[in-house]
Write a structure and sequence with these properties.
Number of domains: 1
Largest sheet: 9 strands, mixed
Structural class: mainly beta
Shape: globular
Distance between the termini: 16 Å
Number of helices: 2
């Protein structure tokens, strides 16, 4: 299950909706053996940025979410092509979604972030192949954030 930062959790309680807090976000995928223990944690020393996603991989247009949610799930805006190109080769390990006021890299209990794992199965973000070559393009056709039902 994806991890919500303290800043995001507090924002959901006080400030606004997930959409209002996370629209105009950036998504980065990292390689590295050590996955941070929380979305509040600093990136570990072995984390290397592989992808930064913008709409159409234009480098400037931030990512947004759909205007509606169903059953506790919000999807990326369907019309947006969330795309990036591999800056380095390797195996994707984890991702962070964050707003541009944050770099997504430092330790913070106020930053608004979501973090998750990547893999071909049993991960927060499922991909066909987690190993990428330098300059490999990647498009995320489907991206959803869920808040689970309580039992």
């Amino acid at each position: 299950m994806a991890l919500f930062s303290t800043g995001l959790r507090n924002g959901l309680l006080i400030t606004g909706s997930f959409k209002s807090l996370m629209d105009d976000a950036r998504l980065k995928i990292y390689k590295g053996a050590t996955i941070p223990v929380s979305a509040d944690a600093v990136l570990p020393g072995d984390a290397t940025e592989m992808y930064e996603f913008t709409v159409g991989d234009d480098g400037t247009t931030d990512l947004t979410f759909a205007a509606t949610a169903a059953n506790g799930v919000i999807l990326k805006t369907a019309a947006e092509a969330w795309q990036g190109e591999a800056a380095v080769a390797g195996d994707m390990a984890f991702w962070r979604l964050f707003v541009p006021a944050d770099t997504g890299e430092t330790a913070s209990t106020t930053a608004i972030r979501v973090q998750g794992t990547i893999g071909t199965a049993f991960a927060d973000l499922i991909v066909a192949n987690a190993t990428k070559a330098l300059n490999d393009p990647l498009t995320l056709d489907y991206f959803a954030i869920a808040i689970p039902e309580s039992s």
